[in-house]
Amino acid sequence: MKALVYNKDFDGHIDLVDRNKPEIIESKDAIVKVKLSAICTSDLHIKKDFVPRAENNIILGHEFVGEIVAIGKDVKNLSVGDRVCANCETFCGECYFCKRGYINNCINGGWELGCRIDGCQAEYVRVPFADNGLTKLPENVSYENALFVGDILSSGYFGAEMCEIKEGDVVAVIGSGPVGLCAMMCAKYLGAESIVAIDLDDTRLEIAKKERIADYVFNPKNCDIEDEIKKLTQNRGADGVIECAGNTESFEMSWKIARANAIVGVVAMYEEDLKLPLPKMYGKNLTFKTGGVDAVHCEKLVKMIEEKKISTDFLITHKFKLSNIIEAYRIFEEKPQGCLKIAIEFD
């Protein structure tokens, strides 16, 4: 089969090569024929050697949907022929962390697909603990509808959930990329009265407005964000802040625009260490929550899609065949105007 492999010996660190089809190894495995995959910013981090735990010579990718073609003898809730979406996390469901919902910290898993074990930017992929890692799709939910359930939609929900949103809250989301847009729609679903989108890219802000995901949009190049947030909140600051941009400036903004006693949920992945300026924050009594996504709501998110309460279809702005995936990576890395997510199509 064809597969996109990360290898430091390749020029550019990725190449499309021939690999053997995966086989059942453990009794809880499933083999999925990939129908659609997506490129994630985390894949770029591996490509750029920013993820030390990533294995060399690994097939990249963890965002995908497809059809089950084989299952291990201990897979109970899935069958060959089922249409499924995948969780970006591999988790056993039995360890200390899994039983408490902290599946990102599963002692038998975590971020494995496309990082520690072969991922989904290939014609077939092996999924460990398949009953946990795969969610069956209803007939009226298409592969495109469900492509982002297990990663960026789960990440957006994770960020919104961290903020403990109450009815009537004003929630500011820094970064209007795919995860930020998902965080906005999930924050609204969880009861926020007003969503404020913040980004340096006017095109992305226009998407947030067009899709009716954000109530207010601000570009820091054109206004003072702190002042604008204060105007909307009777001088208090945002009730919750979800940081999805992932740079020094956005992190500083996150605590500056938060009201006293607010929660700042950080879902961004940073490429360098950051510091908390605690003396400047003293007295604001902020709570910071951060970490890799605990994607425990995949069934709920699929149900929300099925019931038309949310939709992520608009996030797919480009499509490529697997044979052109190197070009797809180039475009995703350069991020031309209007590029949100790239879907890779399989025959």
**Nearest-integer average pLDDT:** 96
CATH T-level fold name of the largest domain: Quinone Oxidoreductase, Chain A, domain 1
What is the second-level CATH architecture of the largest domain? Alpha-Beta Complex
Q: What low-confidence regions span 5 or more consecutive residues with pLDDT below 50?
A: none
Identify the CATH class of the largest domain: Alpha Beta
What's the SSE pattern?
Answer: EEEHEEEHEHEHHEHEHEHEHEHEHEHE
Can you describe this structure?
The chain is α/β, with parallel strands linked by helices and 347 residues long. Helix content is 27%, strand content 24%. It has helices at residues 41-47, 96-99, 130-133, 143-146, 149-162, 178-189, 202-210, 225-232, 248-256, 278-281, 298-306, 325-334; strands at 2-6, 14-18, 30-38, 58-59, 63-71, 83-86, 124-127, 134-136, 170-174, 194-198, 216-218, 238-243, 258-266, 287-290, 316-321, 341-345. α5 (149-162) crosses α6 (178-189). The longest helix is centred in the middle third of the chain and has 14 residues, at 149-162.
